[in-house]
Amino acid sequence: xxxxxKNNVSWVGKIDWELRQFHGADYSVNHGSSQNAYLIEEEKxxxxxxxxxxxxxEFVDNLKSEIDLSKIDLIVANHGEVDHSGSLPQLMxxxxxxxxxxxxxxxxxxxxxxxxxxxxFKVVKTGDRVDIGNGKQLVFVEMRMLHWPDSMATYLTGDNxxxxxxxxxxxxxxxxxxxxxxxxxxxxxxxxxxxxxxxNPFSPLVKKKIEEVLALNLPIDIIATSHGVIWxxxxxxxxxxxxxxxxxxxxxxxxxVYDTMWEGTEKLAHQISREVSSQSPQTRVKxxxxxxxxxxxxxxxVFKSKAIAVGSPTVHQxxxxxxxxxxxxxxxxxxxxxxxxxFGCYGWSGEGNSVLxxxxxxxxxxxxxxxxxxxxxxxxxxxxKARNVAQALLA
Length: 395
Ligand code: FEO
Hints:
Metallo-beta-lactamase, Chain A, 34% helix, alpha/beta, binds MU-OXO-diiron, 13 helices, Rossmann fold
């Protein structure tokens, strides 16, 4: 079912209310998502992106009920990832000669995934234009590493719509499509989660790309993303927010992440939390047992934090796998300019803290010297060390 966007531009995507995981099980989806695809019907008819493979039949059937597929003059594949290209095989069976405009890297990705080197690929790069009639053009902008090497955005002149693909998106289902119709709390939470968990490693490129696009002085009335809302009310707000997020973003927040075997390390975590609050009542404190928490939502809290404390008891001369696994993910996200402290209990050998310190340093965190290393269960003296830990995190 198509939904109107502006003039001759319609949404023809999939609102995916059922989705609960993305990138396999690597990204939790709390409020559904969408794969947004668009139809432009000027003198030429253009399809921008498709939807994920499981929805191919629904997508192609919907499209067939809206237009004669043979009228599609060209397809734009802004990004080869399967959530946007997954319906191409089914669609191309019906319109096999239709040109597909995409980057050189997207050709590699699409051929690698679907094994159709005979598809009519038209390779484009930044600044290339295609005339679609009625005085309108498509202008392509490569978005290398935002978030894949093949990503690009497409700008529609005349209607001033930027089809930004993954950039500025969220995994968030909004039946009404537009940002001014969405619950703003959910919307900004999901936009930040998406940035923190998917785009943060590429923050320097985000900053550069935004500067490059702004320098083009293109009027942008609408940012039509490939996931979540279409930004039509003040679309500049998400660009400005991304620009802010791309520069080592932090709020006055401290996040404590731990796991525990017999509650000793848990007691230390709670004591650090109390100390931070007591020393700096205005600072927001969040505390998570990572074994029972959503790793992506915890990452969003880390993104907002100026400092974190990470705790685990020593086990097998290392730390609990819930903590080490999460720290591996933390390293991938390349956070910068954040402090970290370590804490944990041990019974025998006690390597946990030094393992945590090493992993946090490798993840780019500046570890502070004060720590709590506690033999067996915390004594009042052990708990008292939380004072120095909190002080160092807040300094
Ligand atoms: Fe939404 Fe990178 O795919």
